[in-house]
User: Fold this.
Amino acid sequence: MEAALEKALAGEGYFAFPGVLLVRGPDAFSFLQGQATRDLRRLSPPAGTLFLNHRGQIEEAATVFLHPEGFLLAPWGTLEGLRARLRRYIVFDQVELVELPLYRLLHADGREEVAQSGEGAHPAGLYPLYALLKGLPLLADIRGELPQSVGLLHLVDYGKGCYVGQEIMARLEGKEVHHRPVGLRGLAPSQGAPFDLLLEGRKVGEAKRVVETPWGVLGFAVVRQEVPLKAVLEGGGGRFQVEAWPFEEAAWSGRRSSG
Assistant:
């Protein structure tokens, strides 16, 4: 496992995620255009997109690929979750959602593709740690947050027209939101996330993920904008130092924990 992690961090190999959703039918384009945060007219797939609720909060996320019959969506969460999210909004649309036994391949160098097999991929259990170290969002950590609060504003195309959550995104355009994503470095033992983070007794954010790594305890959190880097926060029975996220390579390169 450790050898595979080193290869992935060096940009070698890929991760494979099973299950892809085909969105097809006469209304496939108009339906998806009204759901996704990306403008399909200008999109150069593969590309990530978010699916929001009416409050502008993230519900699902996926990578979009073109297909001769419509669009392929490779979920960042579960296939069942993405399909359920889309089905809620199908009313009179002539749209079909078809599950395909394909794999989303996420290469460690950043490329993405759809393949028939995931053979040769890095161990699936390695991905959460890899994602944490490299600053890649896990859907479980960002669900319920505004895109701006978790550093995913680049997945929102302004001016594309109406889509679920668009009104909130339009109101926030050009404005600073109250929270931002940060990394955490554990300074004292803690319980598993999620849990509130406190600064001088005041809640300033939430730890979304805290894990033991070969470089000590690291985590991902969403905190208020005024919380500075290197601040020490308390939560979950432990103490944490706020770091930049994505982590600087020095945070996980050549600094292995003696424990």
